[in-house]
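Contributing new records

If you add data, match the layout below exactly. Sequence lines come first and carry their own label; structure lines follow with theirs. Keep one chain per record. Anything else will be rejected by the validation script.
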Amino acid sequence: MTDHPAPPPTSFDHRIAVFATDEEFLAAALPFVGEALAAPGEPPPVVIAAPANLDLLRDALGREAKGVGLVPHGEWYTGSAANAVAQGAGYLAANAGPGGRIHLLMEPIWGGRAGRSPREAAEWIRYEALANLLFAPLATTALCAYDSRVAGPAVVAAARRAHPDTDVYEDPVRLAAELDAVPLPPSPADAERLPGPAPAADAVRTWAAVQGLSAADAELFATAVTEAAAAVGPVDGAQLWGEAPACVCELRAPRRVDDPLAGFVPPPSTEPEPGQGLWFARQVCAYVDVRDEREGTSVRLQYG
């Protein structure tokens, strides 16, 4: 397995705050914002939270609110967990100080996409865990705010294991492996099979359109499939099943990927480069499951 050493103490500072009342939210947010405002040479802190919590914080800060970025979390969290990685990386590149210095308070939308199913919640816990590795070189301070009235005890307990400032923190690679140990549903017997060593984009596009995807979505799905196949290939063909929007493709490759960060590491430029196929697939698809197996790797992509 690829070695991902634990981040040094001076790198990414990843914290968690759990609250169940408005007062508890302010008790966590106000000291954090105060710490940020007092940090010399840092850009203004940013709070990404539910609109009602932003109103609470704005009122409590008074005049100091002018020095704080307040972003409704519905404008930040607009897609999958992989999209959140891209959003965070892009924001830091454009707005953080030297070395990535900035304070971010971030409240996921657990009443929306992130909390709509155990499957979705697991993807967000994976993102929380892998963030410790993805952003390890940066001197960013992040406080993840969890409203237990919305997230629920199971999600909060899992999230605590992804944050180094708790007494239940789990190694990110081990936590990701634990999530991957939950088996995926088997492919249906009537799944359509395409020959290898790489599925033809035209065949995937035509199949997806027949299943109900729009021409634009079918094109994106076909590109995600072919890019993922190129990243892990050669592959032993492909299986396709499902109906729009949940069109699924599974690829099997004889070599193992052995990297829990595969497809999560932001590319150095916006121009596509070889080897970035899994990053593209994760940005386009709702789910991309990369599972190392005894005889290779399976990659399952679900569009919607």
